[in-house]
Amino acid sequence: MKKFMKTICLSAAIIGVGTSTALPSFAMSNTHPQLNSNKILNIAHRGASAYAPEHTMPSYELGDQMKGDYIELDLQMTKDGQLIAMHDETLDRTTNGTGLVKEYTLEEIKRLDAGSWFNKKYPEKAKEEFEGLQVQTLEEIIEHFGQSKNYYIETKSPEVYPGMEEKLLDILEKHNLTRQNGPSSKVIIQSFSEESLKKIHNINEDIPLVQLIDYTTSATISEKELNDYEEYAVGLGMSFKKIDENYVSKVREHDLLIHPYTVVEKEDMERLLDWGVTGMFTNNPDSLEEVLKER
């Protein structure tokens, strides 16, 4: 895994992922090769979700146009076993439907309006074309954007959806987004579920994994926890509001990537970059691109 972590960062540099900016250097050792610290990932959180309905094609397309390095999406699973892009386990917040995703078939969910809620909530950003947008399947998103794009995928509530990991990996394999002869940085998989990530790692250890951590108070992390995470993950993600510079340094000293979420204001982006994060989730990928260009 440690060797793989170095490889993924090097491959990111080769394909040009991220924007160059200086980061603090960290000690090297024989067991922990130095990561490439000159690439910062601009991760378009649910697409450019500050400007368009989250997890819809317009949001993903805007995120791509605004120089997001990765299209970030959350997965839920329908009653008939289809993986769809949606943050919540319920339909209520981002569609005109109601109830649990798992209680509806894909055909039923496709009849819902996944865009009008945005126009109502953000009238200053409303667009007529957002009305009547459909919920997208993972496969539809990949088929739309193709292999030239990068995908940052979260297994949401995997304990609710048995077999989610296998279905995800089957789709990625079908579309040649995993590599048999080396690690692939076309896809990063994240989850709050350690069990879900370890399951994926046991099936295909070449896919980079990021362990999400939900801190209820200020973030603290032990050497043991960092050592445990290193066994299967290439990085960690957590709320940017919970961390400080010391926390970032401890994570980076273990050659783990650190991708805080969800950063909107430029001053927060600047501070996190000064601390040494290796990327961040943002609803405003255009703002992060501007910050990175100025550094």
Overview of the structural elements:
The protein is an alpha/beta fold and 295 residues long. It has one domain (2-88, 137-294): Phosphatidylinositol (PI) phosphodiesterase (TIM Barrel, Alpha-Beta Barrel). Helices cover 34% and strands 13% of the residues. The protein contains eleven helices and nine strands. Strands 1, 2, 3, 4, 5, 6, 7, 8 and 9 form a nine-stranded mixed beta sheet that branches. The longest helix has 14 residues, at 2-15. The radius of gyration is 18 Å and the shape is globular.
Summarize the structure.
The chain has helices spanning 2-15, 57-65, 106-110, 116-121, 138-145, 164-174, 194-203, 223-230, 245-253, 266-275, 285-294, and strands at residues 41-44, 70-77, 83-85, 151-155, 187-191, 209-212, 235-237, 257-258, 279-282. It has 295 residues and is of the alpha/beta class. The relative contact order is 0.16.
Largest sheet: 9 strands, mixed
Rg, rounded, reads 18 Å
Low-confidence stretches: 2-37
**What is the multimeric organization of the chains shown?**
single chain
Sum up the structure in keywords.
TIM Barrel; 13% strand; 9 strands; globular; nine-stranded mixed sheet; single chain; 295 residues; alpha/beta
Give the SSE map.
Blueprint: H1 2-15, E1 41-44, H2 57-65, E2 70-77, E3 83-85, H3 106-110, H4 116-121, H5 138-145, E4 151-155, H6 164-174, E5 187-191, H7 194-203, E6 209-212, H8 223-230, E7 235-237, H9 245-253, E8 257-258, H10 266-275, E9 279-282, H11 285-294
Parallel strand pairs: 1-2, 1-9, 2-4, 4-5, 5-6, 6-7, 7-8
Antiparallel strand pairs: 2-3
